[in-house]
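Write out the 3D structure for:
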Amino acid sequence: MSERVNMLRAAMVAVGLGERPQSLVNGLLCDGDGAEIILVDPFTELPALTYPDAGAVLAQRACAAAQSAQTAWAKGMSGAARGQIMQAISRAVLAHAAPLATIEAIIAGKPIRDCRIEVAKVAEMFAYYAGWADKLHGEVIPVPSGHLNYTLREPLGVVFQITPWNAPIFTGGWQIAPAIATGNCVVIKPSELTPLTTVALAKLAEDAGLPRGLVNVLCGLGPTSGQAAIEHAAVRKVIFVGSPETGRKVAMSAAAALKPVVLELGGKSANIVFNDAKLEHACLGAQAAIFSGAGQSCVAGSRLLVQKSAHAALVDMLSKGMNSIRLGDPLDDATEIGPISNARQFAHVTGMIAQANAAGANVMSRDTTPRQGYFVRPTILDGLNNSANCAQHEIFGPVVTVIPFEDESEAIALANDSRFGLAGAVWTADVGRAHRMADEVRAGTFWINSYKAIHVSSPFGGSLNSGFGRSSGTDALLEYTAAKSIWLDSAVTPRIAFGYVS
């Protein structure tokens, strides 16, 4: 057994898991009954652990357990009490930051310094929504009939969440925290490739006081475990984070059962640089936008639109800068970029680069990469136009397509010439232009002279092939609750007419 696997198992034990992956259902770690799934360390390319797919039976048990736990959480406990438990969860996450970060670094291939930051952000998510747990209320509406009309915001009940492999614990906290703050219960299925930190998060939450069965984690495959959960009668809403292709399938399955969905999908975000920008700052922003996390981010600035007069200088600066980025072992504190998270994605990214090369792109890449692991060199694709496949399809790797533009109107047209609508940015010294670009570019999140700033208190989501709905901020509170309208007639004689209240 390798030293890395021993380190992984020790970290798992430290957060309350066993030495192998298991689902968490009704407070118990348990095995599924499906096909064997192999977890691979993307740095060594070697198998680390195996576990059986949760399967349909375990999915049904998870939904039933969640439904049973939800009533006491929503109606038997005050919002303030729920908030106090969520604060305790926040503290528990911080107290176990080291083993959580270690698990994430080994299984997801993320640099451990990035993992530490994401674990801290998960703690912040629970603390933020803890503050909202006792502040959810409706309103009194002055209807013209003279009735007292007021609304309540009620939890939906069982919500089913599916999260991706690129940021397992981050997206787990991002989904779970607002759902339970609003009185719901959760069945969550992380990617079968990276399930461990989500199970650990739920286990730590229960140890901190969360009722058993309120959050259940299914370690398994989408077509088996996931489909069974979507179809379960208790599930009221489905939340999916992942690719547009899989999101479409999830949405169709949910629609067949008449269940609403929130979709957080991909992007092909335009990072726009004008010639009046501070190019050194724009270059650093462009590097962070596409190379951090090995480009495995839905908001990655994968299309770099540069005004023609600044194009050559910025590309030269970017190509030189990427050689100073440190690639290496995710467990090394010095590593800035780790490997691609899995073999399938590695094949996709390298295939897209080869395709761009065949299409005539000027392919510039970092000089070297580590000799082992699913590493892709930071790569610049120049000389292609916005209709090129690499400019229109999500690569999800450290690969940026550089596209020149003439003026503001062309920059807007290029930015919006995409089937996505998730994020974007502009770099300029002209304040008026900055606001015009923010207004005109189709994006759910838009940055001015920065990139990738994100916080749980701000709404996040997109449009078109980037999905719909919002998963953070106060908007998420609306996604996880339904409004109930209540009418009280205070008149001596009831004001009831045929077909309507007058």
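The chain has a mean pLDDT of 96.
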